[in-house]
Amino acid sequence: MGKSIASRFDHVDIPSSKLRAVIINDDELTLEMDFCLEPGHPDYEEPGAGEDGCFHPGMLRFAGISKLSLDRRDIGDEGKRRFAIDTFNIEGTKFDMACEWGDIHLQARSIRVLTE
Fold first, then answer.
1. pLDDT for 18
2. Which of 3, 25, 83, 86 could pair with 19 in a Cys bridge, judged by C-beta atoms 3.0 to 4.6 Å apart?
């Protein structure tokens, strides 16, 4: 049996994680992330000198989207590549996130957490 969505975030510091990109294709939405890992996560490595934490690339992929609301913020800095996360919630088939990029609210048939 597969892991639950909530258990995929064990030892992941979501408030310290960063959003890198939002990709929309047909009825799919992909969020490219830099997940901030905590000690206890299998991929955790001690941060080097000058590093803020242990970051690991990954994605959240939503398929079979039945409701989608994207409210992009005017951030003023077009060169920004990583966006801080303010709130993050997955409950059943619903997902909500507020971050520097903007607000994302959706309902999807499938929510997958992928790490590279």
1. 95
2. 83
Residue 78 has pLDDT above 80, yes or no: no
Domain boundaries, the chain: 6-115
Cα(104)–Cα(97) distance, rounded to whole angstroms?
Answer: 5
* C-alpha to C-alpha distance for 16 and 24, rounded to whole angstroms: 24
What is the C-alpha separation between 89 and 70, in angstroms, rounded? 15
Taken as a whole, the chain contains a residue count of: 116
Distances (CA, A) of 70 to 8, 29, 88, 92, 106: 24, 11, 14, 19, 9
Instruction: Report pLDDT for 1.
Output: 43
Q: How far apart are CA 107 and CA 81, in angstroms?
A: 26
pTM value?
0.86
